[in-house]
Write a structure and sequence with these properties.
By secondary structure, this protein is mainly beta. The protein is built from one helix and nine strands. It has one helix at about 75-85; strands at about 10-15, 20-25, 30, 35-40, 55-60, 60-70, 90-95, 100-115, 125-135. A seven-stranded antiparallel sheet has the order 2-1-7-8-9-6-3. The chain has a two-stranded antiparallel ribbon with strand order 4-5.
């Protein structure tokens, strides 16, 4: 298995059109992909001597994208517009070679947290709440 760094990974947002056009969000410095979580349902009955459980629904939860924040960048500010309008968008994470893999998912922008440090770059952390699953395409 080839080892890889994140350099060159693209984070893209769809325009909702048909056919949908994806635009790369500028100045991404870090991506935390969504985690997969399986909820469980307890099925223990009075005859069991241990707790019994079955798998229920998979929740892909949240992911985060940290940007070198540019308040004048229309792509970055479009994410703020989506949050305020409660608009779910299609997103892609495009991994470079050797992975050559694209993750696609639908999500809501649920949080935007800017940071303005004294002696470092402006950043903004965007939190995405997935709506459904994601697909991986090689």
């Amino acid at each position: 298995m080839a080892k890889q760094i994140g350099l060159g990974t693209l984070f893209q947002v769809g325009d909702g059109g048909g056919p949908e056009v994806f635009t790369t969000v500028a100045q991404v410095v870090d991506i935390t992909p969504p985690a997969e979580n399986l909820s469980s349902v307890e099925t223990t009955d009075m005859e069991d001597t241990v707790k019994r459980k079955i798998g229920a629904l998979v929740d892909y939860g949240q992911g985060q994208v940290q940007l070198a924040w540019d308040p004048s960048d229309t792509g970055q500010e479009g994410l703020r517009t989506d949050l305020r309008a409660k608009t779910a968008r299609n997103f892609k994470m495009v991994f470079p070679a050797p992975a050559n893999l694209t993750w696609s998912f639908t999500a809501l922008v649920t949080n935007i947290s800017p940071a303005v440090p004294l002696e470092d770059k402006l950043t903004s952390t965007i939190t995405l709440e997935l709506d459904g699953s994601f697909s991986a395409i090689a």
